Amino acid sequence: MKRPYAGALTGPLVAGLANDVASALSDAERAEGLSPGTLGLTGPSLDRLAVWTAAKGTSPDQLVTVLGLVLRGRIGPGGLRRTAGCVQRAVQRWQQRPIDGRYAQVVLTVAAATSPVAELSSRPVAMAVGSGDQMPDELLGLWAASPAHDPYLWRTVLIDVRRRGGDGSSVCLAA
User: Fold this and answer.
1) First to last CA, the chain
2) Is pLDDT of 143 > 60?
3) Quick one: pLDDT at residue 3?
4) Are 94 and 20 in contact (CB under 8 A)?
5) Under DSSP, is residue 167 helix (H, G, I), strand (E, B) or coil?
6) CA distances (Å), 109 to each of 60, 93, 149, in order?
7) Which of 48, 63, 95, 145 satisfies CB 3.0 to 4.6 Å to 124 for a cystine?
């Protein structure tokens, strides 16, 4: 069995989520009549935006605020709300996607979601990572966490992962 997950919330672990957010930004560009790439983010910037917005418990207003700071005037207020709606729908699809229950273990841990902009501080997010001996780790979900950690947080996480099909033969809570 692999050791508990201790990686960063960037790169291959968040690639699927980041691709969904990038696709939503492209859809928003087309809907707003903008040139392709106007709203484009890539690499770590896109990863940070995706992780920041994907934690369950992020409000639509928080999403609009973050996107407004990230996009900095590249789009007007109405377009910003519509773009936030596109991103929110993509994130909700990612949050609700079925999980292939083939993991040897499901690792639960809290990590810092690095802010996509300097004006906002990092925030804690609970995450579930599916892990197997012969496969890459997969980010199964993200949930907004408080520094004090709600006593029902892990119960909520486990119920959500199980509801979506992840059963994991073992669960590991990593500090």
Assistant:
1) 18
2) yes
3) 44
4) yes
5) coil
6) 25, 22, 11
7) 145
How far apart (Å, rounded) are the C-alpha atoms in residues 94 and 46?
15
Closest CA to 5 of 150, 136, 116, 94: 136
Q: Which positions ≥6 away from 153 have C-beta within 8 Å?
A: 126, 143, 145
Q: What's the pTM value of the predicted model, to 2 decimals? A: 0.82
User: pLDDT-based confidence at 8, cuts 50/70/90?
Assistant: low
- Count CB atoms within 10 A of the CB of residue 7: 13
Beta strands in 41-103 (DSSP E): none
pLDDT of residue 2: 45
**CB-CB contact of 156 with 143 (8 Å):** yes
Residue 130 pairs in a beta bridge with 106, 138
